Amino acid sequence: MNDMRMTERARLMQDIKISARDVNVYYGATRAINDVSIDIRDKTVTAFIGPSGCGKSTFLRCFNRMNDTIESARVTGTIELDGRDIHAPDLDPVQLRARVGMVFQKPNPFPKSIYDNVAYGPKIHGLAASKADLDDIVERALRRAALWDESKDRLTASGTSLSGGQQQRLCIARAIATEPEVLLMDEPASALDPIATAQIEELIDELKENYCVVIVTHSMQQAARVSQRTAFFHLGDLVEYGDTGQIFTNPKNERTESYITGRIG
Amino acid sequence: MTLFAFVLLFTATVLAYLLNLRAARALRAGGARLHSLGGFHGGFAALVTLLPALVFLLAWLLLKEPAITVLLLRTLPEAEIAGLGTGERQLIISEIRTIAGGRIFGSPAEWKIEAADRLLAMRRTADYLMIALTALLAGGSMVIARRRVTPDFRARQGTEGILHGLMAFCATVAIFVTLGIVASLLFETIRFFQMVPVTDFLFGTNWEPQIPIREDQIAAEGAFGWIPVFLGTLVITVVALFIAVPVGLMSAVYLHEFASRRFRAAAKPVLEILAGVPTVVYGFFAILVVAPALRALGDMLAIPIAPNTALAAGGVMGIMLIPFISSFADDALGAVPRSLRDGALALGATPAETMTRVLFPAAIPGIVGGVLLAVSRAIGETMIVVMAAGLMAKMTLNPLDSVTTVTVQIVTLLIGDTAFDNPKTLAAFALGMMLFIVTLLINILALRIVRRYREIYD
Ligand SMILES: Nc1ncnc2c1ncn2[C@@H]1O[C@H](COP(=O)(O)OP(=O)(O)O)[C@@H](O)[C@H]1O
Ligand SMILES: [Mg+2]
Predict the structure, then answer these.
(1) Taking a C-beta distance cutoff of 8 angstroms, is the pair A57, A186 a contact?
(2) For the residues of A228-242, what is the DSSP string, one character each?
(3) Same domain, B105 and B233
């Protein structure tokens, strides 16, 4: 009996990839995130939804400490990745970002070749032992990002010469080439047309087999389509967090319901 | 009188503006729907009144004295000026002018004094005529403009049309001035090449710009091969770039990416001060500080160092170019979108890796453009090298030797007694032409690179 509870707990613990407690983010004197606590599961797609300016991006950037690069931003509270505090003094944010990849709202390929874009991360982290190894990593990343067939004949072409949807898939390939454990995506499809969006969504669905994916989206349909868990933010508060189906069909909080039904936003 | 004419004109302009404005308002008050607002009617009237009369006035002022001179010459007694050359007639005219101005030296001939009186009378008439014509022109334009105040008149487009014309004129002024400069340069250069073969100039390795003072002087034949002079420019430019490019780029990278805000706030103004130092001051610095220091160093190491080394001149020129390159590189780095930086950092790159692998390569086209512009500045720089470089042209690439530059030679050729009919003086124009061509080519290349780079983003 006792044994079973222990294993159950261990299983749950293992499931939780990121755990945030009482996180506040300030830009100068203004507070953008208020006391948010959340547990994010591994091998799951978690969606952050909420009206524009409610702090979704700000909170997402806490997980790979990208807020450090914004001069006015200050983060308090604890965030643990696999049970380890990511703000611990002995933890190198550069190493952290290799484990927690990020895809941005606007595709931002480097003005380098497609190959070099994908190879950039593996090169700086020394993931490839040889040129053949690197070729292999690049090919695998491009395949997983569903870009291999379109790009295999022109790996030396500039990454900026691709279409918007292809550029975003290139950025996803670039992020997964460093073998991260977590993939953060900040409105990855908002600059794309419906077909490219559908491809990206399909891709996200496949990625959850291997990664913990957190996606910010302003489209509730998208959240419903790709995620298993949904967190609703409003004015810097985490209002409600639960299974996606429950949030959309049976929200417990009044504010969530207002947003879902289109009364705020 | 001239002042009065201008005051008159500007009063008329203001008056025309107010008149049309009131007329337009009156129309409006009368219930008409105007195509243009009253202000445009006023502006149109003001421009129509001002411009023709202003052009007339300026042309009059420009042509008044020459015209009067011609008329005055006609009135001079035939007997006195018959058989005189242009130069002598000029002398007489200026003497008459002096007398008219009230400065009489000695006792001039009676006919000259009479002529001076006539000159004064002519000037007075011309002034009255000028004011009358200006008033007529401005008044006429005013009436024409006033007539056009109707509900349908498109004063708005009319005003814009006139302003467009004005702007086009100003834009072409720059072009015509440039063309004029090039043409005069070209003209003198052609004259030079009539005396010295083009091939001698372009491929000659000997630069001794002398001309015989007496017909029978020995060894007086000058040599006009520009290669050693250009080599000097090249050596000094290379030395300057060797200092300016690394220091400028590093300081830009540091200030842009790594420096604390406080350090940046302190360092940027200093760089701007460096950019504002007059080149004469750099020249002082070169001859008073750098050159003696180099020589002392040379003595210590037992290396022979010339007093006017290319190293001293080029080194100081390099210091002058640091802020130039640094600010160009800073702009180029600033034009790299922030999203690229975030992208690299989010992949786990350190700030230094982000800079060397992503930001700097992305900014390279802009940086190359800036460096090329610096090259053309170094080639054309004059004051520092006049003060710190040598005068003797030498076929050498040794920066510890004394060299001369194209600009230094132009200055020395044109200083002092010059006659514009011998190759020694005209050689300056040929050198200037070459300088112009070289810097033009470099600038074109630089601008093309910079423009291509602008197209990548946004
Ligand atoms: N770099 C910044 N500096 C100052 N304020 C910021 C910055 N980024 C975001 N904010 C503010 O923080 C709040 C949350 O922004 P954000 O996280 O971008 O919202 P969301 O992604 O949900 O639209 C907004 O009020 C925004 O104005
Ligand atoms: Mg956002």
Answers:
(1) yes
(2) SEEEEEETTEEEEEE
(3) no
Chain A partners of B346 at a C-beta cutoff of 8 Å? 64, 66, 97, 101-102, 104, 175
Task: Note whether residue B189 is domain-resident.
Answer: no
Question: Per-10-residue mean pLDDT for chain B, 458 residues long?
Answer: 89 93 88 84 91 92 90 83 78 86 80 87 92 92 88 87 92 92 91 88 86 58 86 94 95 90 89 89 92 89 84 93 92 90 93 91 87 92 89 85 90 78 85 92 86 62
Q: What is the pLDDT of residue A7?
A: 58
The pLDDT > 90 percentage for chain B reads 44
Among protein residues, the one with the nearest Cα to ligand 1's atom 27 is A53
Number of domains in chain B: 2
**8-state DSSP, A234:** E
**Largest separation between any pair of C-alpha atoms in chain A:** 61
Beta partners for residue A184, in sequence order:
A102, A214
Q: B250 lies in a domain? A: yes
Please give the backbone phi and psi of residue B19, each rounded to the nearest 5 degrees, phi first. Answer: -55, -50
Q: How far apart are CA B156 and CA B153, in angstroms?
A: 9
**Alpha-carbon span B379 to B234, nearest angstrom:** 8
Is the CB of residue A215 less than 8 Å from the CB of residue A247?
no
Looking at B121, B153, B185, the residue that finishes a domain is B153
pLDDT at B106: 78
Task: Please report which ligand is nearest the Cα atom of A59.
Answer: 1
Pair (B235, B149) in one structural domain: no
Q: Is the CB of A7 under 6 A from ligand 1?
A: no
Q: Which domain-ending residue is among B128, B153, B178?
A: B153
Q: Which amino acid would we find at residue B229?
A: V
CATH number for the domain harbouring residue B381: 1.10.3720.10
Strand order in the sheet with A182-186: A100-103, A182-186, A212-216, A45-49, A229-234, A237-243
Q: Which domain holds residue B60?
A: 2-153
Kindly determine whether residue B344 and residue A120, on different chains, have CB atoms separated by under 8 Å: yes
Mark whether B259 and B144 lie in a shared domain.
no
Residues B242 and B148 in one domain: no
Q: How far apart are the first and last CA of chain B?
A: 57
Compute the distance between CA of residue A132 and CA of residue A139 in angstroms, rounded to an integer.
Answer: 10
Q: Convert the pLDDT of each residue in B222-272 to its tens digit.
A: 788 889 999 999 999 999 999 999 999 999 999 988 888 899 899 888 888
User: Quick one: pLDDT at residue B78?
Assistant: 79
Distance CA A201, CA A40 (A): 20
Substitution target from B260, B261, B333, B347 for chain A, most A beta carbons within 10 A: B347
Q: Six-digit token pair at B166? A: 């004005």
* Binary contact (A111, B361; C-beta < 8 A): yes
**Same-domain check for residues B245 and B138:** no
Q: Would B420 be classed as within a structural domain?
A: yes
Span B134-178, pLDDT tens digits? 999 999 999 998 888 888 888 888 889 999 999 999 999 989 999
Q: How confident is the model at residue A75 (pLDDT cuts 50, 70, 90)?
A: very high
Tell me the CA–centroid distance for residue B336 and ligand 2, in Å. 21
**Confidence at residue B98, expressed as pLDDT on a 0 to 100 scale:** 87
- Please check whether residues B148 and B259 belong to one and the same domain: no
Query: Is B36 a domain residue?
Result: yes
Query: Residues whose CB is under 5 A from ligand 2 (ion)?
Result: A 57
B230 and B137 part of one domain: no
Residue B97 has a pLDDT of 86
